[in-house]
Specification:
Number of domains: 3
Bound molecules: phosphoenolpyruvate, magnesium ion
Number of strands: 16
Strand content: 5-15%
Radius of gyration: 25 Å
Structural class: alpha/beta
Distance between the termini: 38 Å
Shape: globular
Length: 567
């Protein structure tokens, strides 16, 4: 058995599929000589064409002709003599096949990238895809496309970036195992959002687990089971069935209110990254969207979404939520979140660097496009705008003044928007929690981002499995900052929510409720369990435990106390 950190609950039982992201090292020089390099290119091209034709046929059969169109287009590009002509020329001129493919296709990518027409610009992504596949084939490096994995597989990888994860078709994947990462790395968060059982920080997974072997994972305990006997397989199948019954039994909480035994009402909200997830959240009866991570609209693509595209995505989410609040957080990139369309300079400490609101205030055109889209969408529901990574009043004021400029523009254009739109901030930097009283006077709501707040408070990288045991929402310093933020919000008469992963932690819920947290926003898969728990709690008694717990000295003591609460 292998063990890592369980980050997305559920049992997965399926064959393992290894995903390697190998560095493609491009050789220089003539290679094995002209004839041999020409033959290598022709063979690789023929194989890739055949594979792509098969992919198109399978996709058409399984998903439909429109989904297969992309692969038909790839076949046409691969068969185009104009694609191969410069490659043949370069090889005849003394270049090796890999280098020749790389140079010629880079020129083509640049050509498409610079086109005015957005449809043509998108074609650059197709050429990039073809280039990587051709080069991988020539180098003998296995290429695996995450968007079209065989049905019901468990992905085993050293690491998956958020954009890798965004490519996954959740209906095909029974589980994810990575060797690196922590509970709040974005891949873990996305796995929870997609309700895929996942384990991170599972050392040696890629070398120990055999390709194609039937394995089982438990996304709660972090255990990976191999060499399964028939009995064990039957046992896991039974557990999967039981979980699906339990899930069905929780469904009755989709239509109830989030109200404690003694009548205190809170919101149980969903964290989402796409309009599709807003529909799922609505189905699960979420009281609100507490965090729309808008950066996911910008991922897995080579161009930035324009104002209209964003407007439609926000509007669709608002319509799905039918007048319930939808908090959209403005672009939060940097740290571990990268955008292909907006390369950022490499930094020594990306989590302390050019990130989130800092980028938006620097690249104001980018920010204004998003704010205009958000304001236009606000005419269709209860949209709230939230700024990430606020560390000072100056940042809040600058961001708000850009919103005001956009409002003036829309007013003079005669475009509708919600003139009373709420503007709030994430409290995810200790500095913000420490000046929460001042910030609260200048915004309409807070949402505490514990994922970052913990890492910045205890100086522990949220994605680093080596220090994962130090990363804790039960650390007394973190709890103190949470309480300060909630109290400051209430003193200024504004609500305070939480959209970090701690909001969905059942153990912490009585304490957060007692502190007065107004909104608990979490992965959609946790909503019904959280609502059930809230209906079983007594607000008045939860208030009574706060002081005692805040006086404890260590995370372990807090955990013990919470485990043995009698309320
Ligand atoms: C957080 O930091 O708690 C948060 C919700 O933001 P993200 O996880 O996207 O950084
Ligand atoms: Mg954050």
């Amino acid at each position: 058995m292998l063990k890592g950190t369980g980050v997305s609950p559920g049992i997965g039982l399926a064959p393992a599929i290894k995903y390697y992201k190998q560095e493609l090292v491009i050789p220089e020089g003539p290679g094995k000589g002209v004839e041999s390099e020409l033959a290598a290119y022709e063979t690789a091209l023929a194989i890739i064409i055949k594979e792509t034709e098969e992919l198109a046929q399978n996709t058409s059969k399984n998903m439909g002709a429109s989904e297969a169109a992309i692969f038909d287009a790839h076949v046409m590009i691969l068969q185009d003599a104009e694609l191969s002509a410069p490659i043949f020329n370069a090889i005849r001129g003394g270049d090796n096949a890999v280098h020749a493919v790389c140079e010629s296709m880079d020129a083509l990518i640049q050509f498409f990238d610079e086109m005015e027409d957005s449809y043509m610009r998108e074609r650059a992504a197709d050429i990039k895809d073809i280039k990587v596949r051709l080069i991988s084939r020539l180098l003998g490096v296995e290429f695996r496309d995450l968007s079209s994995l065989p049905e019901k597989s468990i992905i085993v990888a050293n690491d998956l970036t958020p954009s890798d994860t965004a490519k996954i078709d959740k209906t095909h994947i029974a589980g994810i195992i990575t060797e690196v990462g922590g509970r709040t790395s974005h891949t873990a968060i996305m796995a929870r959002t997609m309700e895929i059982p996942a384990i991170v920080g599972c050392a040696n997974a890629t070398s120990t687990i055999e390709e194609g072997a039937l394995i089982a994972i438990d996304g709660s305990t972090g255990e990976v089971f191999m060499n399964l006997s028939e009995e064990e397989v039957a046992d896991f199948q039974a557990k999967i069935e039981l979980a699906s019954h339990q899930k069905a039994a929780l469904k009755r909480f989709a239509d109830t209110r989030s109200i404690t035994k003694d009548g205190h009402t809170v919101e149980v909200a969903a964290n989402i990254g796409t309009p599709g997830e807003a529909r799922r959240a609505a189905e699960l009866g979420a009281d609100a969207i507490g965090l729309f991570r808008s950066e996911f609209l910008y991922m897995d693509r080579n161009t930035l979404p324009d104002e209209d595209e964003q407007f439609f995505a926000y509007k669709e989410s608002l319509l799905a939520m039918e007048q319930k609040p939808v908090i959209v957080r403005t672009l939060d990139i940097g740290g571990d979140k990268k955008l292909p369309a907006l390369p950022l300079p490499k930094e020594e400490n990306p989590f302390l660097g050019y990130r989130a609101i800092r980028i938006s205030l620097d690249k104001q055109d980018l920010f204004k496009t998003q704010i205009r889209a958000l304001l236009r969408a606000s005419a269709f529901g209860k949209l709230r705008i939230m700024f990430p990574m606020i560390s000072s009043l100056d940042e809040l004021r600058s961001a708000k003044s850009i919103v005001n400029n956009c409002m003036d523009e829309l007013t003079s254009e005669g475009t509708a928007y919600d003139k009373d739109i709420d503007i709030g901030i994430m409290i995810e930097i200790p500095a913000a929690a420490l000046i929460a009283d001042k910030l609260a006077k200048e915004c309409d709501f807070f949402s505490i981002g514990t994922n970052d707040l913990i890492q910045y408070t205890v100086a522990v990288d949220r994605g680093n499995e080596r220090v994962a045991t130090l990363y804790s929402q039960y650390h007394p310093a973190v709890l103190k900052l949470i309480q300060m933020s909630i109290s400051a919000a209430h003193a200024a008469g504004i609500p305070c929510g939480m959209c970090g992963e701690a909001a969905g932690d059942p153990l912490l819920m009585p304490l957060l409720l007692g502190m007065g947290l107004d909104e608990f926003s979490m992965s959609a898969s946790s909503i019904l369990t959280a609502r059930k728990l809230i209906t079983e709690l007594d607000y008045f008694r939860c208030k009574g435990i706060v002081q005692r717990i805040l006086e404890l000295g260590t995370a372990a003591e807090v955990t013990e106390e919470l485990k043995h609460l009698k309320i």
